[in-house]
Design brief:
Layout (H helix, E strand, L loop, with lengths): L16 H4 E7 L2 E8 L2 E8 L7 H14 L10 E7 L3 E7 L4 E2 H7 L4 H20 L2 E2 L8 E4 L4 E4 L6 E2 L17 H6 L4 H15 L3 H7 L10 H39 L14 H24 L28 H24 L6 H28 L4 H23 L2
Antiparallel strand pairs: 1-2, 2-3, 3-5, 4-5, 6-8, 7-10, 8-9
Helix pairs in contact: 4-6, 4-8, 6-7, 8-11, 8-12, 9-12, 10-11, 10-12, 11-12
């Protein structure tokens, strides 16, 4: 191959090269420039001035081009040509990728757990693709992974230390010590199994799939899984997380529906007002609580599939001039029973939460939710019976029941909807 290829792109001439090139980065023996051609930006990768005339480094640059030009994947940087000009010397013409490196995103802590898992799967698929083409990267690390924010896609870059099964020259050890496999750093040039080790280090830094990462980090290369096996394991984990989330949403929706059905079917009573009275402080507090219950019950109903509004608490028919300041006339016994029921419900929900894990099948999860709802109904029924035994009027009991189901719905959402 000649030093200047027959590019379909407009080559940079020696006279105007300095005006069109913008130095971008320099690392080791490599140097990058940003350029614009035909209204489009490209990245040029060449050699630092001290290495441009050395044949072995020119050959390494050609090797990188020949590795990349055979690849066609959305997850791998694309190259179009290799050329030579007076400003850069021999250089590869490749796509310009606008984004942030994975190391930058990890430092900024802007990635959610679900996004980390998705990027890990994308990276595994990219490695699976290049391995199927007989190519190993040999310098896999977060600095060589660019994430395009708008598309939530990653690009694997910098194949300067890459190798392929078709190449028999320039076989050497190398890589970044933090991420390189033991055999790659110390003994030999490494291969696709070394990429699996580096991938395990990245998984560990992402803080996800620790069991999978542990298998990737085995010292003996022959004991490591293939990248295809790793990809399948990550996808199973992602599917389990999604099923868990969907099950939680279904449980919350089911509980919300039960609350609304309960509200619609609970008979209201206009029983005579009891003689026990609230002091001024309790009256104000209970009046505020009643207003919040009505507001929250309306909010729950508006989010459910039940179109009828939640029934309003009916006041006893009395002359206007004798109407009390609040319709509830109970003492602290009602509050105490209500708090006890809520505490029991909270303990039940917390216990069920511990039974759930991503690998649990949907049927078993639904059995747990259905059993929980049945137990919650028993708790609510027991609370109502105790309140009736204490002589509380039905309209007050109904308000406590409404508050109980609202609290239970919110607690279930907080516990299982995260």
């Amino acid at each position: 191959m000649s030093d200047i290829s027959n590019s379909i792109l407009t080559p940079i001439g020696s006279d105007d090269a300095s005006m069109l090139l913008t130095p971008y980065a320099e690392h080791g023996f490599s140097m990058l420039w940003l350029t614009t051609r035909n209204g489009r930006r490209f990245m040029l990768k060449g050699l630092s001035p001290a290495y441009r005339s050395k044949p072995e480094f020119r050959q390494l640059l050609r090797k990188e081009f020949e590795l990349l030009v055979t690849l066609d994947s959305e997850s791998v940087v694309r190259v179009w040509d290799i050329e030579e000009n007076s400003a850069t010397g021999l250089c590869i013409v490749m796509e310009y990728i606008q984004g942030a490196t994975l190391s930058e995103l990890l430092e900024s802590q802007r990635l959610k757990a679900s996004e980390k898992l998705d990027l890990a799967i994308q990276l595994a698929e990219a490695l699976s693709y290049i391995h199927s083409c007989g190519i190993s990267h040999r310098d896999l690390k977060p600095d060589n992974i660019i994430v395009i924010p708008e598309r939530k896609r990653l690009k694997l870059i910098d194949f300067g230390l890459g190798d392929g099964s078709d190449f028999i020259t320039y076989k050497q050890s190398g890589g970044t010590r933090t991420y390189g496999a033991p055999e790659q750093i110390n003994d030999c040039c490494g291969d696709s199994r070394s990429d699996v080790y580096s991938f395990g280090v990245i998984l560990r830094e992402l803080g996800i799939a620790n069991a999978i990462a542990k298998r990737c980090l085995r010292i003996n290369p022959d004991e490591r899984p293939t990248i295809e096996q790793v990809t399948k394991a990550l996808k199973r984990k992602q599917a389990g997380v999604q099923k868990y989330a969907l099950s939680a949403i279904a449980a919350v929706a089911l509980l919300s529906l039960c609350v609304n059905l309960y509200l619609l079917n609970t008979p209201q009573s206009d029983a005579p007002q009891q003689t026990a009275t609230l002091n001024q402080t309790d009256s104000v507090r209970m009046k505020s609580q009643t207003a919040e219950i009505h507001k929250d019950a309306t909010d729950i109903d508006s989010r459910s599939n039940v179109s009828e509004p939640a029934p309003q608490i009916t006041q006893a028919s009395q002359p206007a001039e004798e109407a009390p300041s609040t319709i509830i006339t109970v003492d602290n016994v009602g509050d105490s029973l209500f708090e006890d029921a809520c505490a029991e419900a909270r303990g039940l929900i917390d216990a069920n939460k511990k039974k759930l894990h991503p690998d649990l099948d949907n049927l078993k999860k639904m059995e747990i939710y259905q059993s929980q709802n049945a137990d919650l109904k028993k708790i609510a029924g027991s609370m109502s019976q105790k309140m009736q035994a204490q002589g509380l009027r039905q309209s007050a009991i109904t308000q406590y029941e409404t508050a109980f189901w609202f609290n239970v719905t919110k607690l279930t959402t907080d516990s299982f909807g995260q």
